[in-house]
């Protein structure tokens, strides 16, 4: 898996390959990895599993993570702008200074997570099941946050 990831990163960083033909991460399992300073815009990841992965300063503009699970992952300065995270599962994840601007998250399961200093500008965040999670949101302008099932959830809007 690591060679495939390195190939994908090299292609994306050089921008010498049409994005429509890039390899995807469908039905893939990624464990124990640290990703730093990558441009993974338009990444497609369907029915994949990420565990103990650290994402640092990653661009995921318009990424498509559907029916994908993240467990014990750390996201620091990740830009998810315009991404689709529907039907995704986040368990024991930490998000620090991440942008969810114009992201769609519907039907997700979010358990034991922390969102610190995250941007929810124009997010669609609905019909999710959330438990034991803290949100510290810096911008929620034009956000649609409704119809979520929440247990032990704290929302702080700055």
**E-strand count:** 15
Strand order of the largest sheet: 3-5-7-10-13-11-8-6
Category by helix and strand content: mainly beta
CA distance, first residue to last residue:
40 Å
Q: Total number of helical segments?
A: 1
What is the rounded Rg? 15 Å
Reported for the largest beta sheet, the result is: 8 strands, parallel, barrel
Mean pLDDT: 87
Poorly predicted sequence stretches spanning 5 or more consecutive residues: 10-23
Content of β-strand: over 45%
Shape: globular
Helical content class: under 10%
One letter per element, helices H and strands E, the order comes to HEEEEEEEEEEEEEEE
Explained architecture:
The protein has 158 residues and is mainly beta. The chain is 8% helix and 49% strand. It contains 1 helix and 15 strands. Strands 3-5-7-10-13-11-8-6 form an 8-stranded parallel β-barrel. Strands 9-12-14 form a 3-stranded parallel sheet, with no helix packed on it. It has a two-stranded parallel ribbon with strand order 2-4. It is globular. The model is unreliable at 10-23 (pLDDT under 50).
Question: What order do the helices and strands come in, and which of them pair?
Answer:
Blueprint: H1 2-14, E1 29-39, E2 44-46, E3 49-59, E4 64-66, E5 69-71, E6 74-76, E7 89-91, E8 94-96, E9 104-106, E10 109-111, E11 114-119, E12 124-126, E13 129-139, E14 144-146, E15 149-157
Parallel strand pairs: 1-3, 2-4, 3-5, 3-6, 5-7, 6-8, 7-10, 8-11, 9-12, 10-13, 11-13, 12-14, 13-15
């Amino acid at each position: 898996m690591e060679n495939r990831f390195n190939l994908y990163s090299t292609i994306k960083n050089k921008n010498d390959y049409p994005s429509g033909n890039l390899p995807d991460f469908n039905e893939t399992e990624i464990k124990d990895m640290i990703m730093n300073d990558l441009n993974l815009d338009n990444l497609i990841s369907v029915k994949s599993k990420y565990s103990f992965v650290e994402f640092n300063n990653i661009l995921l503009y318009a990424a498509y993570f559907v029916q994908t699970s993240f467990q014990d992952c750390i996201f620091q300065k990740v830009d998810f702008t315009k991404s689709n995270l529907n039907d995704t599962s986040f368990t024991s994840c930490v998000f620090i200074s991440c942008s969810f601007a114009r992201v769609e998250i519907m039907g997700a399961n979010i358990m034991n997570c922390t969102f610190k200093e995250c941007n929810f500008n124009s997010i669609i965040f609905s019909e999710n099941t959330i438990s034991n999670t803290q949100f510290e949101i810096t911008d929620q302008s034009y956000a649609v946050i409704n119809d979520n099932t929440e247990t032990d959830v704290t929302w702080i809007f700055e």
